[in-house]
Amino acid sequence: MTPLPFDPYEQWLGIAPRERPIDHYRLLGLPRFETDLAKIATAADERMGVVRSAQTGKRGLDAQRILNELSTAKVCLLSPAAKRAYDLTLQLATPAPSPAPSPQAYWPPPQYPALPPQPAAPSYYPPQPNWNAVPPPVPPPTIAPRLAEVRAVPSRVVPLSSPVDNAPAADEALPGVPLWRRLLVPGIAAVLLAVSAVASWQIYRRLTSPSAIAEPSPVELPAEAPPAEEPPPPPDLLRQDASGGVAFPLAQASLGGLVTLRDDELAGWDSAEARAQWPFQVTQPGFFRLELEYATSQQTAAGELEATIGQQRKLCELRPSGGLDRFLIDTYPIAIRASGRHTLTLRPTRQPGGDWLVIRSVRLIPVGGASLRP
């Protein structure tokens, strides 16, 4: 009979195959959406202790993988922001229960009698004209000659010797029209012409008067803004001392992951997000030795930290010290090629797991006489 394959989740954590996929709460053995942070931390430590007992045997790879999953779940659920986002993801991924059928639903549907036809609603708008209709042709008006009103104009013989006498008299040019009516239109035209001439003269005088010709106002150019001064560095920025070295106080470090300051020591380097950062300023670049005073746990194999300053990266291999109360001091060469502000970042790149490292002090010590100044 073929033996069943080894299932670390069922053997070590009691998670049956039917409970997959496994979320963070099930992995730690907690009810879903647990809010007590102390219970979360206690459950994570207990499960990690169970798995660590099998880390040194032939199931070491499985143990290391599950330890990483437990550490990821612990970090996520102990961070309020990450926990809210993770809980929302679980709520959205959970399918909503299907609604129960209504007790009134049945088949076939009831038949209702047809409603009688309703009369059309009266329209309150006037009928619109048909704009496409062709209007009927309009006959031209009938012009009847008024022969009774035609008057014969008596002829008059005028000698050709006097050109002035050839012009017809005023009373004979338009027979039947009074003289005052014949002179009304020319008089009105003369008055309008005189008024327009006076108005044009007044407009010309206003446009050509000295007060109307205003001198253009001078254009004020904006004053040039003074060059922006570089802001001074903050007063708490770390600087080189008289010997050219830099000491990095542990209390001024920006910590990430589960790293905490405990008894003047940095502990909690058991997650991939663990890191410590210090901003500082260098006025004398050159070659330095990064000095670390640290201690590792008694069961821990060699670990490794990555130190980054700008573009410079240095892998610092840590020796086993035999206990978290036995400290070692190691130095690692590193170069700073430019003056100005920099940031020192320490983060683990190879970690055995668990509470395996504490750091007591971090310093930059200049190498005597070496300088990178041009």
Could you explain the architecture of this structure?
The protein is of the alpha+beta class and 374 residues long. 25% of the residues lie in helices and 20% in strands. The protein is built from seven helices and twelve strands. The protein has helices spanning 8-12, 24-27, 37-52, 60-78, 80-93, 170-173, 179-208; strands at residues 238-239, 246-248, 254-256, 260-261, 266-267, 275-282, 286-296, 303-309, 312-318, 328-336, 340-350, 357-366. The strands form two sheets. Strands 1, 3, 6, 8, 9 and 11 form a six-stranded mixed β-sheet that branches. Strands 2, 4, 5, 7, 10 and 12 form a six-stranded antiparallel β-sheet that branches. Helix 3 runs antiparallel to helix 4 (60-78). It is elongated and about 140 Å long.
Q: How would you briefly describe this protein structure?
A:
The protein has 374 residues and is an alpha+beta fold.
- Taking all Cα atoms into account, the compactness measure Rg is 53 Å
Structural class: alpha+beta
The major beta sheet can be summarized as: 6 strands, mixed
Molecular shape: elongated
Number of helices: 7
Kindly report the average pLDDT value.
77
Q: Which percent range fits the helix content?
A: 10-25%
The amount of beta strand, in percent, is: 15-25%
Order of helices and strands: HHHHHHHEEEEEEEEEEEE
Low-confidence stretches: 157-165, 370-374
Query: Count of DSSP E strands?
Result: 12
| N→C terminal distance | 77 Å
Q: Which quaternary structure do these chains form?
A: single chain
